[in-house]
Amino acid sequence: MDVEVSDILFFYELEIRKKLHLEACPGQRYARVVVPEDRQLLYYLFQDFIEPVYGDQSKIIEEWINGTGHKKVFLLFRDDRILGFLSLKVNPEKDYAKISTLFVLSRFRGEGNGSFLLKIAENLACTFGRSKLSVTVSEERPEARDFFLAKGFEEIKSVKGMYKEGVTEYILVKRLV
Fold first, then answer.
1. Domains of the chain by residue range
2. Does the global pTM surpass 0.85?
3. pLDDT score of 64
4. CB-side neighbour CA atoms (13 Å) of 55
5. Is the pLDDT of residue 118 over 50?
6. Which of 99, 170, 175, 71 is CA-nearest to residue 130?
7. What is the distance between the alpha carbons of residues 44 and 9, in angstroms, rounded to a whole number?
8. How far is residue 8's CA from residue 25's CA, in Å, rounded to a whole number?
9. CA–CA distance, 137 with 127 (Å, rounded to integer)
10. Are residues 36 and 65 in contact, defined by beta-carbon separation less than 8 angstroms?
11. How far from the centroid of its chain's Cα atoms is residue 127's Cα?
């Protein structure tokens, strides 16, 4: 019998919620900040979904867990099943916030989950006094580029080989005010 990734991640979340004494309303989405107990869950997610495009991400995961690099990281759930995650960098030396990662598991796309995470990013950026939100999207993820453009982002630049040799990355920006 095949076990789906989201089924395995479901059990991780149940254990973490027990430790954190969190309650969720059935059927409603909720986002929570990443905690150290999420380390295994993040490695599992990245191995299957992020590393095939961007390579080893273990340094990033440790930054998320340790709270370094000015990043705010959220996991999105419904009924204790992980739907996606968001990493937002709010560098005090910049006038904008940067979405490092906004990812929704494929079987939960088209349900407003990406928009939900984007709204968290926009609200947090405004809370920190930022007037712009930026994101870099790989040409290998045209659906992500289309999503951000449809949400009011504008392409300001494209760079070949920025993160991966031979691959074009698009830098998109949205004004928040």
1. 5-175
2. no
3. 76
4. 5
5. yes
6. 175
7. 8
8. 21
9. 24
10. yes
11. 18
Name the helix (H) or strand (E) containing 41: helix 39-45
- What is the token pair recorded at 35? 């905690």
List b or e across 147-167, with b for residues whose CB sees 16 or more CB atoms inside 10 angstroms.
bbeebebeeeeeeeeeeeeee
What does the angle CA 58 – CA 64 – CA 70 come to, to the nearest 5 degrees? 125
Specify the 3-state DSSP secondary structure of 76.
strand
Provide the token pair at 129: 């006094």
Contact present, 13 and 82 (Cβ < 8 Å): yes
Dist CA 107 CA 105 (whole Å): 6
User: What backbone phi and psi angles, to 5 degrees, belong to 116?
Assistant: -60, -50
DSSP state, residue 50 = I
Output DSSP code: residue 106: G
Q: Which fold has domain 5-175?
A: Aminopeptidase (3.40.630)
* Per-residue pLDDT band at 44 (split at 50, 70, 90): confident
pLDDT over 50 at 8, yes or no:
no
Tokens read off for 75:
């996991």
Strand order of the sheet with strand 71-78?
A: 29-33, 71-78, 81-89, 96-104, 132-138, 168-175, 154-160
The three-class DSSP label of residue 131 is coil
